[in-house]
């Protein structure tokens, strides 16, 4: 008589049960196919253009190319999704569901639910992008994002000096039914010429994506001279596409130095941290100095409270966000600008940094063009902290070595981008997470 053992009982199950996804990041990095590369490029094009299809009066399909590509990427990586990772995703969504139910004035619940749908969509496609990037080799990701950065650089130079502007403007008029940039005169006063848009709706999209793409390349690259190349390409970028957003590339050195470069063999090293903290501090000081030297007129206007763009992107959102932390424990709810618009307007006009010469922006969603402060406005301190904690735990489940690196990079780039429930906000977080995984992943040894 045969003896029943755990092995004999589990044998048939193992034969027919679905294979579990790899549980450690060491098993990733085997490379992605050309089709995956194309999908990643389409995703980046969606972030860059922010091309939105209006499904109905109240239901947009934001960054449609990124949405389509992200869903396909998520489907292709479905076997890489572990049970714990899926549970983490649902825990994050549960926090946001509670936030819209407990936010004040339930008459705004339909709008908040619409925001929840957009947020779920954005996180899902960002997760699909993350799973694809960590599957790629270091060389593949470095090549993709360096190529994209150089493409933007060349395109902006051609638009400014090579006669590409008429074609770019014609394409932009076809792509964007609204939201086209109309401040060329102001740019001429600040920078001596209109800033290039290179098929994007506004110059800020160009500089934001250039900073993001360059940063991902910088984090994953093993090139010994990458630090100098990064600073050099930032300097060339300031010439080709002038704008203060590019100075954020200096601030992005802080999370890299503090949370990734300070590691040795995948572990935090206090001595290394002390050494790189000095470089990080120098980068922070250089940011302040360069802001005054590189863009003197823009810096003068911003510091004197005469720069409307700076106010609506940086100063104003900070005022509204801090006020929400103090007075709205559960926040205003996702996409809650309409609920709190009158209060935010009052805060703005009472601020010494606001000028009565400016026209108050419309619609209400344009009052806060900063996804970092939108987080606190929408969620308040209670759900704001709860969401960060839940996402941090999820990132740990996904084997991201330093969630702190991801959050700090996310917060820095949030000063140049709005739309908290949109794909760009969450793509930044997931791209930083994937770059951190690749940075800490050992390169395969030649056989």
Shape: globular
Number of folding domains?
A: 1
Main sheet properties: 2 strands, antiparallel
| Number of distinct helices | 19
N-to-C CA distance: 47 Å
Q: Give the DSSP E fraction (strand runs of 2 or more residues).
A: under 5%
Class by alpha and beta content: mainly alpha
Count of strand segments: 4
Q: Secondary-structure element order, as H and E? A: HHEEHHHHHHHHHHEEHHHHHHH
Work out the radius of gyration.
23 Å
Keyphrases for this structure?
single chain; 447 residues; mainly alpha; two-stranded antiparallel ribbon; two-stranded antiparallel sheet; 2% strand; disordered N terminus
What would you say about this model in short?
With about 450 residues, the protein is mostly helical. The protein has helices spanning about 5-15, 35-50, 65-75, 85-100, 110-135, 140-160, 165-175, 185-190, 205-220, 225-240, 250, 255-260, 270-295, 295-305, 310-325, 335-350, 370-395, 405-415, 425-440; strands at about 55, 60, 265, 265-270. It is built from 19 helices and 4 strands.
């Amino acid at each position: 008589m045969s003896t029943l053992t755990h092995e004999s009982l589990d044998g048939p199950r193992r034969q027919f049960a679905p294979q579990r996804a790899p549980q450690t990041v060491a098993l990733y990095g085997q490379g992605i196919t050309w089709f995956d590369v194309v999908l990643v490029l389409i995703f980046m094009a969606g972030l860059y253009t922010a091309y939105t299809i209006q499904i109905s009066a109240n239901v947009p399909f934001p960054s449609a190319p990124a949405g389509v590509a992200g869903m396909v990427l998520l489907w292709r990586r479905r076997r890489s999704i572990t049970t714990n990772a899926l549970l983490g995703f649902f825990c994050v969504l549960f926090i946001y569901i509670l936030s819209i139910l407990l936010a004040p004035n339930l008459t705004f619940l339909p709008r908040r639910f619409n925001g929840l749908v957009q947020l779920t969509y954005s996180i899902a496609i960002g997760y699909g992008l993350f799973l694809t990037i960590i599957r790629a080799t270091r060389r593949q990701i470095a090549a993709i994002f360096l190529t994209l950065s150089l493409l933007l650089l060349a395109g902006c130079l051609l638009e400014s000096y090579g006669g590409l502007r008429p074609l770019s403007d014609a394409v932009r008029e076809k792509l964007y039914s609204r939201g086209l940039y109309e401040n060329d005169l102001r740019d001429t006063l600040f920078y001596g010429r209109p800033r290039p848009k290179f098929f994007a709706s506004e110059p800020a999209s160009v500089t934001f994506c250039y900073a993001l793409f360059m940063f991902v390349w910088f984090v994953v690259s093993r090139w010994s001279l990458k630090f100098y190349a990064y600073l050099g390409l930032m300097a060339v970028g300031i010439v080709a596409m002038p704008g203060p957003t590019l100075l954020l590339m200096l601030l992005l050195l802080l999370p890299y130095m503090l949370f990734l470069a300070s590691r040795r063999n995948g572990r935090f090293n206090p001595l290394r941290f002390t050494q790189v903290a000095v470089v990080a501090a120098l980068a922070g000081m250089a940011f302040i100095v360069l802001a005054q030297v590189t863009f003197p007129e823009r810096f003068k206007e911003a510091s004197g409270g005469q720069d409307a763009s700076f106010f609506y992107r940086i100063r104003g959102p900070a005022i509204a966000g801090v006020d929400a932390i103090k007075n709205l424990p559960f926040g205003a709810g996702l996409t809650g600008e309409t609920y709190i618009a009158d209060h935010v307007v009052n805060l703005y006009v009472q601020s010494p940094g606001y000028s009565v010469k400016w026209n108050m922006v419309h619609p209400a969603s344009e009052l806060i063009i900063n996804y970092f402060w939108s987080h606190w406005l929408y969620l308040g301190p209670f759900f704001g902290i709860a969401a960060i904690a839940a996402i941090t735990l999820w990132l740990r489940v996904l084997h991201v070595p330093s969630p702190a690196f991801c959050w700090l990079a996310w917060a820095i780039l949030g000063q140049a981008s709005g739309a908290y429930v949109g794909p760009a906000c969450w793509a930044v977080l997931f791209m930083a997470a994937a770059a951190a995984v690749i940075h800490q992943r050992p390169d395969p040894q030649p056989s």
